[in-house]
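[User] At your convenience, examine this fold.
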Amino acid sequence: MTRPIADTELASPSVQTEPPVSDPKPGRGETGRQRPTRLSSLHTGLVIASIALILLVIFLVQNARSVKISFLGANAYVSLAVALLIAALGGAVIVGGVGAARITQLRRHRGKARARERT
């Protein structure tokens, strides 16, 4: 059984073309998987931070014994956990300061490069 031919089919060439390939769906990467949003990244960060906090509390409870600390002639008896926590926080402050200085340096360099491009 044949179907009737429409006028538009007669006027146009009978070359069969494939539909155009469309871009992937918005919000999807090249692999076709959903890209993470800022909110999901925040949620993941909070979960990881909560796990780290639980591990830190366990560490503090297990290392509650007192130790002698000497620094620049000063002596004190402090909980081992508190002493290690203060040392870790001091290290984090130093690393954060160096990182902030480097980011500032890179931003200044980028700003100068953009200014040179404009002129």
The beta strands are 66-71, 74-79. The first strand starts at residue 66 and ends at 71.
